[in-house]
Write a structure and sequence with these properties.
single chain; 267 residues; mainly beta; Pnp Oxidase, Chain A; eight-stranded antiparallel beta sheet; seven-stranded antiparallel beta sheet; 5 helices; 15 strands
């Protein structure tokens, strides 16, 4: 359907799930970005966002961005200025790459995705947006984001620790970062009751895919490219668990499962 419509992975998952007709009615959401109206106003009022991008080694990560209202600044119909610099593991963020940004208001259960190209880095990030659209409020749990509690990631390893596993098992929220070779990167919210993400071992976890808006943006990306990243925020401590690895979509008689293999951990 072209760059502003569904790509081959999204179409394939929609067909397999039997919702291609319903999804087709929503294809207009993927029109070229316009940040000058209501979406821009929503972005400008946020204090929390998540960014999916690659580090200088080419590894995909999803990191939190926090700030006072206005730190996300629409600058025209297709440009978003981000007045904060990402921290580790994306503290040395190269420009000229695709990025996906998700802005959430947890208490009001609203979210907007912005996908585009990172045109400039530094104290202010410049994102040239190609898509900007909202998602339904389902599975968003109310949380208060306290930027003063923000804790930097200071350790790197290649497997989950006991503390990492405990955080995941208690989580009701995480952000899923995915990628497509032509459409770029994306950040998407996932939520459920604590325990909805199951940890098999120090390298493997999985979760069930809950019914949503039938667009299958994330699963469509995974169907084409398994590269993925997970962000588990700890809203109480301000810490965040960052995982980078590979995801696969499994179709079972009971529904869809996403299995994630951990390759790198930052916390």
């Amino acid at each position: 359907m072209g760059k502003t419509g569904f790509h081959e992975g999204e179409l394939a998952v929609q067909r397999r799930a039997g919702v291609d007709t319903e999804a087709g009615r929503l294809a207009g959401m993927l029109a070229p970005a316009d940040l000058s109206g209501g979406i821009g106003g929503f972005l400008a009022g946020r204090t929390f966002a998540a960014l999916t991008a690659r580090d200088r080694d080419g590894r995909l990560w999803t990191v939190p961005l926090t700030g006072a209202p206005g730190f996300l600044e629409p600058a025209g119909a297709g440009t978003l200025l981000v007045h904060t610099a990402p921290e580790a593991p994306l503290d040395d963020l190269p420009a000229g790459q695709p990025v996906g940004l998700l802005a959430i208001e947890f208490m009001k259960r609203r979210r907007v995705r912005v996908n585009g190209t990172l045109a400039a880095t530094g104290e202010v990030l410049t994102i040239e947006a190609e898509q900007a659209y909202g998602n339904c409020p389902r599975y968003i749990h109310p949380h208060v984001v306290d930027a003063a509690k923000h804790a930097r990631a200071t350790t790197r390893r290649d497997a989950l620790s006991a503390d990492d596993i405990a955080l995941i098992q208690q989580a009701d929220t995480f952000i899923l970062g995915t990628t497509h070779p032509e459409r770029g990167n994306d950040a998407s919210h996932r939520g459920g009751e604590p325990g909805f993400v199951y940890v098999e071992d120090e390298h493997t976890l999985w979760w069930a895919d809950y019914p949503g808006n039938n667009l299958f943006n994330s699963l469509g990306n995974i169907a084409v490219d398994p590269t993925a990243a997970l962000l588990f925020p700890d809203f109480d401590s301000g810490e965040a668990l960052h995982l980078s690895g590979r995801a696969t979509l499994e179709w079972t008689e009971h529904g869809r499962l996403i299995r994630f293999t951990v390759e790198a951990v930052a916390r």
